[in-house]
Structure formats: C-alpha cells, structure tokens
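Reposting from the mailing list since nobody answered there.

I have sequence plus structure tokens for a pair of proteins and want to know whether others read the tokens the same way I do. The first protein:
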Amino acid sequence: MSSRQDDAMAALRDWSKPGRRADLIAAAWQAGETNVSALAEAARISRPTVYADLRSRGIDPDHRPKGNSVITNLSPLDIEGFTGVAERLDAEFDAALRRWAAEHPTASKEEGQAEGMRLVGLMDTTYRYADVRDLLAREQVARAERDRLLHLVELRWEALSTASAWLAAHHAYVLAVDEARFAIDMWRERAEAALSRPFFCSSPRDEAAYRQIQEAGHPALEQALADLDRTPAQTAEQLRATLDQAHERRMELASQTLRHTQATQ
C-alpha cells in the first residue's frame, strides 16, 4: 500500500465532521483503495453507504481505477500458427518450420537454424503468455463475482426492512451469504493460481515474440500482474471474517423479529 493510500485510509478512520465522510471515502478510492469492504470497515459504515458516498462524489464504484488491466473476453491466439495450446506445440512448430523452408528454398543451414531458434522462442512465449493470460482472466472474473455477491448480501439485508414476505426475503439473504462465502473461496483459489505463474521475457527473442503477440491485438499482462492481490489467503480470511461477523449479528436481530412475528400469530 502506498504512503498516499495509507494517509487517505488513516484520515477516513478518523472522520468526524458531518458531510466529510464522503469526501474521505472518495479520496481513499482515488488513492488506490478500491476494496469496498475495507472502506466500510475503516469508516465504520455499511457497504451500501460506501457505494452511496462514492456516487455522491461522482465516482462509479463499478469502474475501478485499475480497470485498464481487465483482460476478459479474450480472443484466441494465432501467432504464426502458434495457439499456446500445450497439446499442439510440437505439431505447430513442425508446421511453422515447414512453411518457412518452403518459402526459403535456397536458405543456408545456418539461416534455417536461426529461424528454428526464433520459432522456438515464439512458441514458448506464446504458450506461457496464453497460460498466464487465462489465469489472470479467471482471477478477474472471480474477483468481480466476489465483489458482486458481497454487495448482494448487503442489498438482501437492506431489503428485509421493507419486505412484505419477510421469511422469503430472509431466506434470500441467507442464500446470498452462502454464495458470497463460496465466491470468496473461489476467488482465493484463482488468485493463488495466477500468482503461481509469473510471466517474463528472458531474452531479446522472447521480447520480440511478446511484442508480436501485442501487435496482433492481444493485451499486455504487466498491469494485470501488478494488480494481483499478493496475499489472497489473508484477504479471503478477512473478507470471510467480516462477512461472518456481520451475519452472526444479523441472525441475532432476525431472531428477535421472528420471535415477535410468531408471538403475534
């Protein structure tokens, strides 16, 4: 966390002046803290209130400052015939080398060897790129689903206060909590998988292959890799703890409502 982000979150935790909370939440968001649960915990308010405060300051909470790293909706790879699919590597390499040989019938042995090395670099880089890109995409999808379901929990709870069919609405809330727990665990697994696959270029040949991939219209990976949560297990534990603590308290409140309902029947 940057010093600017630290300062913004510290100020948010100490807010007291009426009307200043939304300004501090917006400042923390703009400083890089886009975890709504963390903002809610720091300000000691609910997640829906965080969303309302952000929107009151002209910030769309569904548009993250790091949104330029989104790499979902990916198109298939085809870089000189290399698709990045492990089972096809040997066949694709042989086909690429045959094409080059047919196009350069008078090439020397040395030129053929150089081309073979270039194709090896392109094949390897494309394969590693595809592997990392797909893992990053899965993490981003899981992260978005995690945040959506955590928000849905708050919406379901808020809906209970005006629900005409209270038991049905309460059941919907309980289901939302269960789905959010599952989503947190799913995100953690995918984040850990993404962290286990670093992407790097170790030679000028690799760098040239990576440029070729991007020139073909495929996204760069650097920002998405930088955006990864480096402690997914810790973050997941914190999210689960916050969710479970709130749920336990809400169940106590809901039981009072249920007892009153049963007493009046």
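The second protein, same order (residues first, tokens after):
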Amino acid sequence: MTMVAATSRAVSLIAPSGAPVELEVPEEFGEFRWFGTTRFAGPRMSRQFFLAPLGQHRAIPTHVMPGASERRQPMRGYDAIVYEARDRSDSALVLAGPHHEATTWFGGPAPDLLGVTTMLSSFRYADAPGGATLTPLSSLLVSQPDVALIGHSEEATLIVRRSVDVLPSLPEWAGFALPGGELWRAGRVLDDRGAALVAGTPHRWRFVLAGESLAMDLVLLGPESGRAPTSLSEDRIVDALGRLSGRWAGGR
C-alpha cells in the first residue's frame, strides 16, 4: 500500500487591524477563501465591519435589499457607497477599494452625507492585493477590541483571533497539548434538525486550538450544511489538528 504524506499549506494574511498573520493549514481542511471582521467602540460609537474580496456588495441592491437606493462618495483610495432599502428599514455602508471591501449595517435609515463623512473621519481604510485594513485614526478616541479572520472552504470554517481576545472564553481546565497549542472541543449551537443530522459524528464539535499569539476555531462542515459527512476518522482529525498552527504578529 502506498502511503501519502500529510501536507499543510502556508498562508500569509493581513488582519483587519494591519497585523501580519502566518498560518500552516492542513490540506485536509480544504483551500480557504478569507474574510475578516472588526469591531470599533468609543464615545457614541459602536460599529462592526465585515471585510471581503471586492464584489460581494453587488448583491445588496439585487438580492439583500432589492431596489435599494445607492449613493456613492469618492474617497482617497476607495469609494464609500451607501445603500438604503426602499422603506428605509435597513441600510448599509460599503467601503469599496480596488481589491477588497468593508461593509457595516445600520438596521434603519442611512445616515446623511455629513453623518457618513463624520464616521469615516474616525477610521483609516487601506486596500492592497494582500489584504485590506480598517483602523481607528486615534486609539484614544476609538478602540478596536475585536478582530478576526474567517476562512471558508468546502470542508470547513476556520476563525482566527488573537489569543488575548479568546482567553477569557476558554475552559478553565487544560486542553490537549498539540504542537500548535492546546486543543479543546465544544458542542456547536444547532437547531434540533441540525443537531440530529450531526449526532455521533465529528460535525457536532467545534475544535478550538489556542497558541501563544493566536487562537483558531475550526468547524468541519457536514450534513447540517447540506454536505456529505467528512471521510476523516477521529485519529486523522487529531493528526490534522496537530499540523494546524500560526502566529499573529504584534499586539493588534
């Protein structure tokens, strides 16, 4: 019998905060397409942005809010696009650069031109082929307490955060020691139908691996997502998790 060597893929990313992130991702988990999210907090400020490859926002006026109005405001290096539903029940702001975009939702009427300009004066948005960053102009006025990278493949979803942001939510007991950090597994939050579909399979778990600088939350996608169950045995899953590792550079 011919043995196939287990391999991993080196991935270099830029977090929404601008921090370089280096990952080693086992081939068993598929090839990921990467997104990001970041939250800002400050006086009269609480806002979440979702970062994605350019083009995702085109679905807003056609599928998410059919017939929504569009207002475009040119900025340095990107366009600020405001979409508003016909009945003004929802709206969104998209920062569209040459390679990526960042979107935030208002859950009501869109702010006027002055309101958008005032909001954008609190942030710096920079787009490049390797990733987009969205950071506060002054950390004294606006903080950035939650930053994550989110990978989607056919086989799994992988969420990557700084270890310091995840530590408060980790179990008090020690995890299983692996080269990339300590490993825990936890039950997923699923409806009754989803829970029944994944009962007795690895798909009922989230796998949390916390290392020195970053923590990763992995979910193997299966019947609850309309996919076939994974062909990986529990031993192969643990072996693959042993090759999952990464580094979040700097403190951001």
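Reply #1 (J.P.):
I read it the same way you do. The helical segments are 60-64, 113-120, 163-166, 192-198, 234-241.
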